[in-house]
Amino acid sequence: MASIYQLDEIDNQILELLIENTRMPYTEIAKKLIISAGTVHVRVKKMEEAGIIRGTSLSIDYGKMGYSFIAYVGLFLSRTSETQEVIDKLKDIPFITVAHITTGKFNIFCKVRARDTSHAKEIIFLIDDIDGVARTESMISMEESINDKNRLMHSIFR
Predict the structure, then answer these.
(1) DSSP string, 21-75
(2) Topology of domain 1-57, CATH
(3) How far apart are CA 36 and CA 64, in angstroms?
């Protein structure tokens, strides 16, 4: 059985700084926390080994790249036993940026990024054509008002 890594106040402070800027050098973190860069390195390495830190992420402004249209697509499956096969096919469509297996109305719920409504229609038709998908229901995002994992992380560490 894997042991649970216990975060202390220094770990929390390191994570707080990395949440704000994943590219912050260990030397800068060390200066802010008045500890050695070696200590920062060792603690980050331990948190990586414990699976608390899993890589770093890059935030992209998709709108500036021509993909400002967002649609959410709920999938109704013919049989729930086909869920994994459908997920595997969804992975082949690069415009699907998020997919969740869900309870409630839909079996799977996806976030789609497209160039415009015409492109979104093409993507939704691709989804509809996947074996095992009985039908879909789509919603167009008017505006992404909140997309901030940092708020949750900060509340956990405080």
Answers:
(1) -TT--HHHHHHHHTS-HHHHHHHHHHHHHTTSS--------GGGGT--EEEEEEE
(2) Arc Repressor Mutant, subunit A (1.10.10)
(3) 39
Question: What is the value of pTM for the model shown?
Answer: 0.76
Shortest CA distance to 15 belongs to which of 38, 34, 33?
33
Give the whole-angstrom CA distance, residue 77 versus residue 126: 15
The answer to whether 17 and 32 are in contact (CB under 8 A) is yes
Beta-carbon count within 10 A of 27 CB: 12
Q: What is the pLDDT of residues 116-137, one digit of tens each?
A: 999 999 999 999 999 999 999 9
Tell me the CATH architecture of domain 62-140: 2-Layer Sandwich (3.30)
